[in-house]
User: Which sequence fits this backbone?
């Protein structure tokens, strides 16, 4: 069966150029970057080249402001807990949003259980935060604001620049989870004015199990893991040279392709949105129509449930995702959709198509062709329609 | 994740729809957890002669609804009462762990439909008494 | 230049069979293991297959007793801090040894800074612990004993079975860092009787950036990182499917080859030891002559310093390592060699050759041929000889 | 990690050895940090005419010893006193950060040898006085 992958926000295929780099560092240049000998030096150079490539993509002042981690989840945990522990003497209040990824929300929950106080700022119906609501949440003991750059479910982009400017007035540090944004839209840490930023390799055609954390010079950070002298002791463990070099290559690729990727995906995205909206009755687009990732289509299909849509799509060879609790084994529908004010039924009926650089117009057209019949069949079974 | 039996019942569910003038009907679930099942039964001489369902929910919810309506047909009311959610899951070759409690409600819906049947019967008997 | 790699304890090349698996999950079966669709299911299966392969190699009762991590350092941190936090109500005392890897020692240091108490049991001149010294260190509030199975520097094997038996008498949990042992010698968690055990992929022909932690059923453990529902919430983050599947394959390979690998390496190792001892005066073998990893040769060469030996070897195409501070940028020579009672000069003059499955007898013979001249040259420059 | 200049001096160090009957000698470093340097100088008319070293230590330690002995030859005592560890490192095109403080001791060893030369000189002068 020809398969159409439209779940790029869950993970992307590794680009062949990236895989070639990973292979090189698995099979030939396999040294430990801490070793004194030839193999070690080659590995060390690869690490530092990758650091420059990441720094370059996000406009960091210096490659030394980047730490490599095992992924977005670790970057988020390190940023939030790392700052919280390092700044605990200055205050115990942290501001985040209601629609963050679980890595951020649950890191905050863990801190709350240890005595920190967390304020979760809400969002509007399109998933966007009001920077002034962040200002209102700031207290004398606020040490950190963590707000995502682009939401993973509905693709809404947040006004991080404004939020960072406000934070600066109060001398509060800002972290942004840019896992979904980097590689999709142009991201510049200097323009954003953030102090910390999380990235993940596998959301941008790089390998899984590797991520990065941007840490602006002089930002206080306590490591969560102890060991050797790797990554300035802020993230010890033998460096995943192959993965890191792969992530570097993915950043290089993103830099080369960004403008065209963006343009290309936007066109596909809007075609898919228009197709779904015109072919299927009682469908709503979730998220912001304009402040939105170029690859995200998230719709609520009234009267039916997300997992059953996904299963039906999968039988047609189409891979998508959903904000229904049934897909995650949790008991609640997507906290993000609920925070945007959707009812439980409607939240359960969400489907997310996230496009990638390998998707073609035919793929989009096939989804538009297949989805209506699926919806019709499931609606016929539903007591809600 | 799902067994072949689940996928078969999800793909070709049996007994989808409503029964006009059912002898009993029952609904379980709630929007929060994402599964709502509605069951209709037709009863003759204390025997379930037909059953239909309408379900809003995941693959497991649809498959359990389908197989449960199959299981109940031909059973006496007493036998139908003894059908458990566990039996329904077993008839499908098992369900993923996280689906066992949240989407495996078909037997409950059935029991509600039977309750409803018996209430109506009682009401009718009292009405005619 | 033909290069001879004899630094397998630092890291191993990835076996081509492993690399092929990694490639498959980078390029074709690239799904996120949490996804409902086909790509997700294939990834999930790969994860669970790998879990079984790891479980199988170490004799775990059930694959569910294995968590995947980003490497040995994270496994050590998760084991030690995870148990410490989960059991803090029962006590705050932890026992470890003086020759552990920095991941263990520094995790313990971090706990000490938080109010836990750490006892570091010493070793004899050959790097071996006395189980009775562990018994003597146990107190009423001891919650965990963490002792490595095989030392990374001198290759000495520890009597973990005896230590675990003692710990059981006192109802204390036992963790062992088996990063250097697994894949080299037969390791069975049931025979050892340990509650937790750390593994790392890149020390056994698997990829870097992936590791595992064996956690015996019912062992209390608090996660160090929060996020999604991955790895039973004990280690969240999108699973590194390619890396994990690669580690699984590496375990399968180890299982297939173990007996022959062991035999083969032992022969090479002893040839190298004999050659060095007979060709160079004033050289001592560090570590235990018998209770020793089959691939470890660690010698102290009196009067000269390790890094200068490594550089000289590297110029001849031979990659080795050293316990000298100069190789690590720290200010102290190997804590392990010092704990064994070596003087600073002698500790600084250590060289470690760690053999691997690709080394040939010619490689060993070349080292035996090249090393004497290097030693002679450096000794001629040294004020100590 | 090391520059080509470091590797060249490590591979072909200049002035290795001892000077018999030196006019000054100095030793720095200690076994703990893994670097011990011993320098010998020969002085004529307040000018360093020869310098040799013996060093136990890493590549940087050997290279800095070598280049420092080169630098000092032909210099007056006063000029030699002005040679700094930083200059020695610069002459090698720089050293890795962690080597700057722990292995970059050649100028210190040189200054000790000069001190020793001056002490001997003073002793001689006092002895003859
Ligand atoms: C917004 C966001 N943050 C964090 C993460 C976690 O990243 P990772 O999967 O690399 O742990 C994800 C993806 O899972 C994400 O979408
Ligand atoms: C004994 C021991 N434990 C732990 C580690 C750390 O493992 P990793 O390099 O995978 O973080 C190593 C190797 O570096 C080791 O040799």
Assistant:
């Amino acid at each position: 069966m020809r398969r159409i992958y439209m779940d790029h926000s869950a993970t992307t295929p590794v680009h062949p150029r990236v895989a070639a780099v990973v292979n090189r560092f698995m099979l030939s240049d396999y040294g430990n970057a801490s070793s004194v000998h030839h193999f070690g030096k080659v590995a060390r150079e690869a690490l530092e080249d990758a650091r420059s490539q990441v720094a370059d993509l996000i406009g960091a002042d210096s490659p030394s402001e980047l730490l490599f981690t095992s992924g977005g989840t670790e970057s988020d945990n390190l940023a939030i807990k790392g700052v919280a522990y390092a700044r605990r003497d200055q205050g115990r209040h942290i501001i985040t949003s209601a629609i963050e990824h679980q890595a951020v929300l649950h890191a905050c929950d863990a801190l709350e259980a240890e005595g920190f106080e967390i304020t979760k700022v809400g969002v509007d119906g399109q998933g966007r935060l009001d920077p002034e609501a962040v200002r209102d949440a700031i207290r004398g003991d606020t040490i950190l604001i963590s707000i995502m750059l682009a939401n993973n479910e509905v693709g809404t982009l947040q006004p991080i620049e404004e939020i960072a400017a406000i934070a600066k007035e109060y001398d509060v540090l800002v972290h942004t989870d840019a896992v979904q944004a980097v590689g999709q839209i142009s991201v510049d840490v200097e323009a954003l004015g953030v102090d910390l930023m999380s990235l993940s390799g596998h959301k941008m055609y790089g390998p899984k199990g590797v991520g990065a954390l941007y840490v602006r010079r002089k930002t206080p950070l306590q490591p969560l893991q102890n060991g050797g002298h790797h990554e300035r002791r802020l993230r010890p463990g033998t460096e995943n040279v192959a993965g890191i070099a792969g992530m570097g290559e993915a950043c290089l690729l993103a830099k080369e392709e960004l403008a065209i990727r963006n343009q290309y995906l936007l066109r596909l995205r809007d075609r898919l949105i228009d197709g779904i909206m015109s072919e299927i009755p009682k469908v709503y687009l979730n998220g912001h129509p304009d402040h939105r990732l170029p690859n995200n289509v998230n719709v609520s299909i009234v009267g039916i449930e997300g997992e059953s849509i996904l299963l039906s799509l999968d039988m047609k060879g189409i891979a998508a995702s959903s904000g229904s609790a049934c897909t995650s084994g949790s008991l609640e529908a997507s906290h993000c959709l609920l925070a945007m004010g959707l009812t439980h039924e409607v939240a359960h009926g969400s489907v997310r198509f996230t496009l990638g650089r390998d998707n073609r117009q035919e793929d989009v057209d096939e989804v538009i062709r297949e989805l209506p019949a699926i919806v019709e069949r499931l609606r016929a079974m539903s007591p809600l329609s | 994740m799902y067994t072949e039996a689940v996928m078969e019942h999800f793909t070709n569910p049996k007994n989808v729809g409503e029964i006009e003038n059912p002898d009993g009907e029952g609904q379980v679930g709630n929007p929060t957890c994402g599964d709502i099942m509605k069951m209709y039964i037709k009863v003759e001489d204390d025997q379930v002669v037909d059953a239909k369902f309408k379900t809003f929910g995941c693959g497991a919810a649809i498959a359990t609804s389908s197989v449960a309506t199959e299981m109940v047909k031909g059973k006496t009311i007493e036998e139908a009462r003894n059908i458990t959610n566990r039996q329904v899951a077993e008839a499908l070759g098992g369900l993923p762990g996280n689906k066992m409690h949240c989407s495996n409600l078909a037997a409950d819906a059935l029991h509600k439909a039977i309750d409803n049947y018996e209430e109506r019967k009682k009401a009718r008997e009292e009405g005619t008494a």
